[in-house]
Write a structure and sequence with these properties.
This protein has helices at 12-24, 35-45, 61-70, 86-94, 107-123, 148-160, 177-186, 205-213, 230-233, 249-261, 287-292, 298-304, 321-329, 340-348, 354-368, 402-420, 425-432, 436-445, and strands spanning 4-8, 28-32, 49-53, 76-81, 99-102, 167-170, 195-199, 238-242, 263-264, 273-274, 278-283, 307-310, 337-338, 373-374. It is of the alpha/beta class. The chain has 4 domains: 4-123, Response regulator (Rossmann fold, 3-Layer(aba) Sandwich), CATH 3.40.50; 148-310, Rossmann fold (3-Layer(aba) Sandwich), CATH 3.40.50.300; 314-393, Helicase, Ruva Protein, domain 3; 401-445, Arc Repressor Mutant, subunit A, CATH 1.10.10. A 5-stranded parallel sheet has the order 2-1-3-4-5, sandwiched between helices. A 5-stranded parallel sheet has the order 7-8-11-6-12. A two-stranded antiparallel ribbon has the order 9-10.
Length: 457
């Protein structure tokens, strides 16, 4: 029996192209050009899967998805969007979307995702019963990125946020582990309760136990009054333990017990205290190396690593760098832009300090910029950290796939040629050595603006 797919897309050309593609693949296709019509067909037609545009003339795609889930429609949903920001990604996942694809759509990637979604639906129809996010203006400061790696991070956040599951966040220093912990808490049903953070590397070992578990008056010298520890402060909410590998082994045993039994004891008191705490841990160190060096208990690792979120280093998601730069430039008190040459210099660097290093470099460049444009001379990168490769091929992220890398290269070439030609399209075509008509086609395909009625530009 053919799988039935409902396509909800208001652009007629895209709707026809998708229908033809899926029809040729043997699917039973039904179409809708607006959200209300899509809701009617979703109810009457009982599709197995829906391709849902996020921007529709009557309902936005996320509102439509929410109404579908409230109506107990269990069709798999793939969101189609040209705006893959972190909020939309997390919200779509929490509302029950199986996945989302970026426009312009890669046909091969879409077909793979459709097959995965249909197989997943057959295996377990109920796994996407995730609570919808209220309309409050939740935001995740600092989380920026449209790359495939970051989209996977957003989806994991959406899937784990509302469960009590313990999460282990791994990634190099500066990749944003604390931001992920913030996001998990903010998108959970514990968001109105405390998010308590402890940097295990920043507190001396002899004070850490009292800081975590608290103490009674007289528990030790200078304990003049009862002190509530971080565990109790987080009751009902989330406790984030950063740099978990720096926790002394004696405290790791107490933490393991707290995770297993959900109880703690203050220093100087043997009475167990029952707690309702969601645990998130993070480390920038190699977990296997920590265990091998007996700096991290293996049993504690398995207790913490119920769900693991691995953050990619910035060098593996360089397509996100321009977005991050724009975010950092927008914080300037004066209008500042970046020149193409300065951007090229930034893109050539490998960023061992990740997003944190990039943020510091951009902040310094704003100060050093002579005017409103950041030039290459304004970009000062620590030479000890420069590991730029001479061949751009070495910087390609293979996990992004062939067509995504080709599209990124085409976009870079077209934008650079247009900038060098100061917007003159005829000159840009000559720089690239292609016909003007092909340049127009590429601009349209890549989502770059083409002014109508202009023949020389």
């Amino acid at each position: 029996m053919k799988s039935r797919i409902l396509i909800v897309e208001d652009e007629k050309t895209a709707l026809h192209a998708l229908s033809s593609l899926l029809g040729d693949e043997g699917y039973d296709v039904i179409q809708a050009d607006c959200g209300e019509r899509g809701l009617q067909l979703a109810t009457r037609g009982q599709p197995d899967l829906m391709l849902l545009d996020i921007r529709l003339p009557d309902l936005d795609g996320l509102t439509m998805l929410e109404r579908l889930r409230n109506g107990h429609n269990d069709a798999a949903v793939i969101i189609m969007t040209a705006d893959t920001n972190s909020r939309n990604a997390i919200r779509a996942t929490q509302l029950g979307a199986f996945d989302y694809v970026s426009k312009p759509i890669n046909d091969d990637h879409l077909l793979v995702q459709i097959r995965r979604a249909l197989e997943y639906r057959k295996l377990e129809k109920e796994v996407r019963n995730l609570r919808s996010i209220p309309e409050s203006n939740l935001s995740i400061p600092g989380m920026v990125g449209h790359s495939l790696q970051m989209q996977e991070v957003y989806k994991l956040i959406g899937r784990v946020a509302n469960s009590p599951t313990t999460v282990l966040i791994t990634g190099e220093s500066g990749t944003g582990k604390e931001l992920v912990a913030n996001a998990i808490h903010e998108f959970s049903d514990r968001r109105n309760a405390p998010l308590v953070k402890v940097n295990c590397a920043a507190i001396p070992d002899n004070l850490l136990e009292a800081e975590l578990f608290g103490y009674e008056r007289g528990a030790f010298t200078n304990a003049l009054a009862r002190r509530i520890g971080r565990f109790e402060q987080a009751d009902g909410g989330t406790l984030f333990l950063d740099e978990i590998g720096e926790l002394p082994l004696t405290l790791q045993a107490k933490l393991l017990r707290a995770l297993q039994e959900r109880t703690i004891e203050r220093l100087g008191n043997n009475t167990p205290i029952k707690l309702d705490v969601r645990f998130i841990a993070a480390t920038a160190q190699d977990v296997d190396a920590l265990i091998a060096a007996t700096r991290l208990r293996e049993d504690l690792y398995y207790r913490l690593n119920v769900v693991s979120i691995a953050l990619p280093p910035l060098r593996e998601r360089k397509e996100d760098i321009p977005l991050l730069i724009q975010r950092f430039l927008s914080r300037s008190q004066r209008p500042v832009t970046i020149s193409p040459a300065a951007l090229d210099k930034i893109m050539a660097h490998q960023w061992p300090g990740n997003v944190r290093e990039l943020e510091n470099v951009i902040a310094r460049s704003i100060v050093l910029a002579p005017g409103e444009i950041v030039t290459p001379d304004s970009i000062q990168i620590n030479p000890r950290q420069t590991h730029a490769t001479t061949d751009w091929v070495e910087q390609v992220a293979l996990r992004d796939g062939y067509w995504n890398n080709i599209r990124k290269l085409e976009s870079h070439l077209v934008k650079t040629a247009l900038e060098e030609a100061k917007g003159n399209k005829a000159k840009a075509a000559r720089i690239l050595g292609i016909q003007r008509r092909l340049l127009y086609e590429k601009m349209t395909e890549l989502g770059l603006k083409v002014e109508e009625g202009i023949s020389n530009k």
